[in-house]
Structure formats: structure tokens, C-alpha cells
Amino acid sequence: MTTLPTTELFGLDNLPYGIASKPGHAPHVVARLGDQAIDLAGLATDAGGDAWVDAWSQSTLNSFAAQGRPSWRAARAWLRDTLRDESRADIVRARLHPLGELTMHLPIAVADYVDFYASEHHATNAGMIFRPDGTALTPNWKHLPIGYHGRSGTVVVSGTDIVRPCGQRKTPADAAPTFGPSIRLDFEAELGFVVGGDTAIGTRVRVDDAADHLFGVGLFNDWSARDIQGWEYVPLGPFLGKSFASSLAAWVTPMEALSTAKFDAPQQDPQPLPYLRGDDLFGLDIAIEVELNGTVVSRPPYSTMYWSPTQMLAHLTVNGASLRTGDLFASGTVSGAQPDQRGSLLELAWSGQEPLQLPGGSTRSFLQDGDVVTLRATAPGTDGGRIGLGEVTGRILPARSN
Ligand code: MN
Description:
Layout lengths: L16 E5 L6 E6 L2 E4 H8 L5 H4 L5 H5 L2 H16 L4 H5 L2 E3 L4 E3 L7 E4 L3 H11 L16 E3 L5 E3 L4 E2 L2 E4 L8 E4 L3 E2 L2 E7 L18 E8 L2 E2 H7 L13 E3 L4 E2 L7 E3 L17 E3 L2 E6 L2 E4 L10 H9 L10 E3 L14 H4 L7 E2 L5 E2 L7 E9 L5 E12 L5
Parallel strand pairs: 6-22, 8-16, 9-26
Antiparallel strand pairs: 1-2, 1-5, 2-3, 3-4, 6-7, 10-11, 12-15, 13-14, 13-22, 14-16, 14-17, 18-19, 20-21, 20-25, 23-24, 25-26
The site of manganese (II) ion has 6 residues, from loops.
């Protein structure tokens, strides 16, 4: 393997998928190897991957994700074998392109998008901030993975600028709501799960079958306007405070690449209802970093999440709601127990009461125009090292008056 470009975090045990294009050419499916991308349809054509040529010629990952888990596994095994095969090294090299020459696109056509709330630490912190006079965790929190339906059409790929949203906001001190640019704009460090394989309406996906629909993961930033959210969210949940934009990484890491990062989830107390039980309950040992203008301000550990992704998917379908390939469900803000593990500015600066100190003496309670937020993450790889998740980054632009 010395003849191929690998780096520690994006080697043969990783191989995330994305959608890339060169100027004048249509976007198509690629896999990342080090700081290069492999044109997969081209490689499959040249090296016996006929089963995937059509799906990998598409401008989204949806066709490939629709093929199901046996095909995902076979494709990954074929790709790894091909990349390791010295006799095909010239064929591989001809299909490699430096990432710097490529434009990355949104990896999936997002069907439905749901955001969960699966971190007990985040839910507790948010509850204390939003409802200081009540119980932090709502009575339902340990009985079901709470979620809301977001807006799939405004999920954007990493690197897309985020325009500060306008809306109605009202603080408890205000007599009436006002309209204008959000003054409490925030990020949420999350993991997004990409669903593959449709199901029929009226059927459900059980916990132990959910992994058949888990194609892969990407880092996800659920940008949130706390002032808009705080005024609008009772009683139907988040709406315009979230739907202006959500950012997804350009690279989708296959679940198989995370097999070493999986661990058996601890027993939940209270035990949830039978439809949320099963053998395939797992956590993921993924270490996230939140970078604000180049400074790491938080390290949220995904391993602290309460609900397993398989429980989230089982809950999402228990009423008979169908799945569609390209559905995206996000974990909710990942926050650990420690103050420097909180996955949002709301928590890090405790709703503005304890502004975050940045190098050079500046502080942040919420995001300012020009701020750049980048999420990165690593996880144990299958070869004993670590693998990287593709970053998700975005810059805040000033609100528009039109
Ligand atoms: Mn969220």
C-alpha cells in the first residue's frame, strides 16, 4: 500500500463516500483515500465492480444507499480488495483525483429529516436554561427518544455559508414580540444518520432490524436561532428557529467502518417499552471537536448518548411511518457531563451568563457575523488506529433585509 496515498485518518479502514465534480463535469460518487478521491464508477468499470457502476454514476448516494446492506458490504469488500491489489495499482491510480481539484456536493438527496434529542446531558442543560422553574428533564424523556421533523430542503453541504435568519423573538422581559435578525444564533454539534432502503407505510422497523437501514453517518450542525426558538416552540416544538439551514458533512462514513467504535449500550433505567428493546443496542465511541474561528471550544463525546441509533429508528417508524432512502435523522446535540464537553454555545456560555473566552480576549455568548464553526471527529478504526469523519464547517453571513 505504499504506492497509494493514505493518511492516518482516511486510510483503507475508513473509505467514506461523497459526491464530487470537476469543472465542466457532472457530480458523481467518490470514496476518500487520504487527501484524494477515487472516481468509483470509473474504477468499477475498469476493475470488475459492474454491480455498482450505475449507482456510482449518479449525482447523489441515494441509488447506492437504496441497494441495501448486503450490497454496501460487498461494495466495500470489493473496494478494499481492489485498492490493496498491487496488480491493479495503475488502474486505481488513474482514477485518483486530489481533493483540492474537486467540488464536493451534498452527498444525499435528503428525503425526510428528523432531529432527535438523545443526549441526557444536553436535554438536562437545555431544560435548566429554557425552563428554570421546572424539572430539567421532561417526564417523557427516558421513555422515548424525543424528536421533531425538520426541513430537508434546507440541509446544505459543509462549506456552505449560513445567512443569519430573521424572525420573531421575545424575551420574558419584552412586552411584545419584535422582528429582526436573530441575536442568539447558535450551533449544535450532532451526528447525522443516513437511511438506506424504503419501507412500506403501515409497517415498522424493529430495533434488531434497524441496522439494515443504517447506511452511514456524517457530522451535522443543526444551526439554531435561540431567540426565535424560545418564542415559537411551545407547544409544537422547533420551527423557524431551526429550519433556515442545517449543515451536513460532505463525507458519509459507512457504518461498517465504525464497527470497532460500537459498544454495547448500558442498561437503561427505567427500562423502555418492549418496542424499544432488542439485542442491537449500541453506543458509538466517536470523539467530536467543535472549533470556533480556529480554536477548539468543546470536545463532546458521542459515547455519552442515551438512546441507541437503532432505538431512534425503531421509534421513528413505530407508528407505521415509512422510511425512504435518503432519510436523514440526527442525534440531537451531543453534550458530555463536563462543561468543556457541551455541544452548543447555549450551554457553553450558559445562555449568555458565562460568556466563552476566546484567544485574544474576545468572548462569545452567541455567534457573530463572520464566525466560522467547524466540527471534526475521530473514532477507533478497525486496524488499531483511528479514522476521521469528514468535517462540517460553515461561516455566518449577515442577515439580509429582503
Ligand atoms: Mn438539534
